[in-house]
Amino acid sequence: MQLDIETRQTGLRRMRRGCRVASGLILSGSFLLSLVACGLFREEVIIPRQPTVAEQFAFADSLYREFANPIHQRDEAERATKARAAFEQVIKLFPGERSYAGRSRLGLAMIEMKMGRPKKALRGLEDLIEEYPDDETIQIYAQSEAGGLYDDLGKHRKAKEYYWKVWQRFGQHPNGEFQRLARLAYIKYQKVWTQ
User: Fold this and answer.
1) How many CA atoms does the CB half-sphere of 151 hold within 13 Å?
2) Model pLDDT for residues 47-58, shown as the tens digit of each residue
3) Looking at the 3D structure of the chain, how many domains does it have?
4) Which of 116, 148, 175 is the last residue of a domain?
5) DSSP percent split of the chain into helix, strand, coil, nearest 5
6) How many Cα atoms within 13 Å fall on the side-chain side of residue 29?
7) Which residues of the chain carry a pLDDT beneath 70?
């Protein structure tokens, strides 16, 4: 009996010192407590269902904007999880809405990018570029962001290719926002050095 108490106390000390889980912690639920303390055991994220795809996407987009807002730096992982779940729900609940599914996937790629996973974000962006060639909104944002990620990864030739594609396709576009993004891509194109 004395050994069990000492083992529990040792386990609690280890949990306090960096959440290390030793094999002796399985006694009396200490293992579950250590998982909660380490943040490995989390509640399921519940995203309310909206009546239309536009409202569902707007809700997901609002969670993304809250996550991406530099003012809110605390609980970044939690806000990313909520935004990710909201975009995934748009795709799940409205599978026939191709445009909203693509924009939701773009949001998922942007979350990966902001969470410091550029390669995963690039895979998502390049899939979107290939699967949605006629969706101009997806194309301009996905190509612009892919260019930036390639530039950050030191793959300057690839970055220049994406920036040039954006400039060529959207430089004279009637949408003012697209023109602004295209000019920005052209400026980046001129600044990127190829090796």
Assistant:
1) 18
2) 999 999 999 999
3) 3
4) 116
5) 75, 0, 25
6) 2
7) 1-43, 72-73, 194-195
